[in-house]
Design a protein that fits this description.
With 305 residues, this protein is an alpha/beta fold. The protein has eleven helices and eight strands. The protein has an eight-stranded mixed beta sheet with strand order 3-2-1-4-5-6-7-8. Bound molecules: acetoacetyl-coenzyme A and nicotinamide-adenine-dinucleotide (NAD).
């Protein structure tokens, strides 16, 4: 194994910095809700960006999502029209994994499933240049179990972005026992270059935000099942009483009920604490195809665009 063992997750200072790989070309795996946002912010930051989907249809849908988001930024005066065009010029959608071979960093944002992610990283490891950094945007899997599927665990970190990616400032930079100081340093600098705020944290399922947020969201569903109040009443209570931008049900629909269900199962499996257990209603809604905003129906109904 090439990786060095770490004495601590949080050294006071980073170790000696070598030549420091400059990240110029980024690959993003998955052009769904998160992958499209991550690809957009990378391209907006001036980086050549490849985004990979599993089929042309899904790629078209994802690229359209990016175009609408850029149009929205231009319409709102947050981005000059020519910068919007230049951003799109730096973005290439691909279906072929081989296209990512000379990327300096690959960020994975595919479905929250350990086998799918490990399988993808094994293939990617054979294709992408050895010095490249691999990162996962997983919400709840530990990064270590993904890193050890590759021959470069020292070049592997978590980069956990938040939804909607163009708006949310935070990126959790997850260091494992095997991540090298250089990789954490490069990943942190990359996040800063995107204009985001990095927070380095340890490799514990859910990291910082989801460790605290997921039990809250699941508890809201349980309270609703118990008849505490309507979805609207509970959302309004949290918005008006706590100043949250969205109530828990609006946020659940926004994140995706399928993704929330996968996350809850993974965190429950990891911690064996009932606060992480998916409530029966969540499972039923996913089984019924009510996945939230993305499917047009969740706790609320959405107009199809
Ligand atoms: N893409 C790009 N920009 C978007 C956007 C999107 N999908 N949605 C909203 N925006 C922008 C708007 O353009 C607008 O910008 P300006 O203020 O500069 O005009 C701004 O965000 C506010 O949007 P709106 O006025 O349309 O709507 P809003 O005030 O209700 O804000 C929101 C929308 C930013 C999504 C806000 O409701 C919010 O912050 N919600 C909470 C989001 C949150 O908690 N995210 C974390 C989810 S958990 C997670 O991501 C981790 C995980 O692993 C599951
Ligand atoms: P999503 O279902 O919207 O998108 C996932 C996409 O990945 C799909 O379009 C799918 O076709 C594609 N895909 C599947 N296998 C692939 C492969 N091998 N190569 C390329 N593409 C592939 O899901 P999402 O909400 O974007 O979540 C993606 C990841 O980000 C998950 O790990 C999730 O936990 C995490 N995440 C989600 C949120 C959120 O709010 N939804 C926030 C932070 C992190």
């Amino acid at each position: 194994m090439r990786g060095k063992c770490r004495e601590s997750y949080f050294p006071e200072t980073f170790g000696p910095i070598g030549d420091g790989m400059k990240i110029k070309k980024v690959g993003v795996l998955g052009c769904g809700l998160m992958g499209s946002g991550i690809a957009e912010v990378c391209a907006r930051a001036g980086l050549e960006t490849l985004v990979r989907e599993v089929s042309e249809d899904l790629l078209d849908r994802g690229m359209n999502r990016i175009r609408s988001s850029i149009d929205r930024a231009v319409t709102k005066g947050k981005l000059e029209a020519h910068d919007g065009e230049a951003t799109l010029g730096r973005l290439t959608g691909v279906v072929d994994l081989e296209a990512l071979e000379d990327c300096d960093l690959v960020i994975e944002a595919i479905v929250e499933n350990v086998e799918e992610k490990r399988k993808t990283f094994v293939s990617l490891d054979r294709i992408v240049q050895d010095k490249a950094i691999f990162a996962s945007n997983t919400s709840s899997l530990t990064i270590t179990q993904l890193a050890v599927a590759t021959a470069r665990p020292e070049n592997f970190v978590g980069l956990h972005f938040f939804n909607p990616v163009p708006v949310m400032k935070l990126v959790e930079v997850v260091r494992t026992l095997l991540s090298s100081d250089q990789t954490v340093q490069d990943a942190t600098q990359f996040v800063e270059e995107l204009g985001k705020a990095p927070v380095v944290c340890g490799d514990k399922s859910g990291f910082i935000v989801n460790r605290l947020l997921v039990p809250y969201l699941l508890d809201a569903i349980r309270a609703y099942e118990e008849g505490l109040g309507t979805v609207e009443a509970m959302d309004n209570a949290m918005k008006l009483g706590c100043g949250y931008p969205m109530g828990p049900f609006r946020l659940l629909d926004f994140v995706g009920l399928d993704t929330t269900y996968f996350i809850a199962n993974i965190m429950f499996e990891e911690y064996r604490e009932k606060r992480f257990a998916p409530p029966p209603l969540l499972k039923q809604m996913v089984t019924a195809g009510r996945l939230g905003k993305k499917s047009g129906q969740g706790f609320y109904t959405y107009e199809k665009k």
